Fold Luciferase-like monooxygenase.
Amino acid sequence: MTSKQLSAIPFSVLDLAAIAQGQTPADTFKHSLALAQQAEQLGYKRYWFAEHHNMMSVASSAPAVLIGYIAGGTQSIRVGSGGIMLPNHAPLIVAEQFGTLASLYPGRIDLGLGRAPGTDQLTALAIRGENMNASHQFPQDVERLQNFFSVDNRNSKVRANPGEGLDIPIWILGSSTDSARLAAAKGLPYAFASHFAPTYFMEAIKLYRENFRPSVHLDKPYVMACINVVAADTDEQAEYLSTSLKQFFMGVITGKRQLLQPPVANMEEIWNIYEREAVEQMLGYLFVGGPETLKQQMQLFVDQTQVDEVMATSHIFDHDAKMRSYKIFAEMLKSA
């Protein structure tokens, strides 16, 4: 097992724009901007938004709009999607939206693409209508999107303006081996959703690396892992704060979703053994603790996976505690 220097690993933020109890989406967006501005100062490389629909606890239903808001309020941090669920959108519209963003904020926009609907099947039907099987066209839609961005498309009857000729990095997002094969075949960077789907993570990144074909975009494999991070000054405080995240995932598993809840002293009073096992399985890559504990956990993770970048997502109820968590995480990585 090769040891990698933690301080050499780029680190980024995934924001689901989770709405805390007692807050509104407007509050959440203001908190996102404050976090992005702090992340920029702390040396975070990217700030990405996920795409989710029909979830009352998650306000990231229009990532392209949020990307513009965050990019406009920051100076240098890369801002992007983690991701745009491409089967929900026509490739031309995505090319135009991200072409607009890249024109406004040149050299700062990332486009992460996923194939899942980002919601339940009924809502997916409301979004996609007769295109309910659009996910089967995901590889072809990625190809169409790349064509819209290419200079070679200038002679086509359908063109993306703005968008055509712009260098907008495309990432393939995934939680399974299918996405790994696609990212490898197209020579694109690969971001894995290990923050909620840890099961196929090791298998997928191995497959990606072994099958990677160099491209004009990337000469060697590049893996980014998204992980859950709850950092605090002490292990005990971090464990306490992490109960909000565990309640959030319990809502996902039981279908009883609610706004992000305050932390509790004892999760055993809330969940049963089956719910606990299910949540812990989903949170296979959860890093909780004070600086020293986090350092040990992260060093082991990076050595085992050899990831090229980590992207932290943090469901923490209190905004100040969340800001503190990202600060502790960044300072720990930079000093390791």
About this structure: The mean pLDDT is 95. Strands lie at 11-15, 46-49, 78-85, 109-114, 170-174, 190-192, 223-231, 286-289, 309-313.
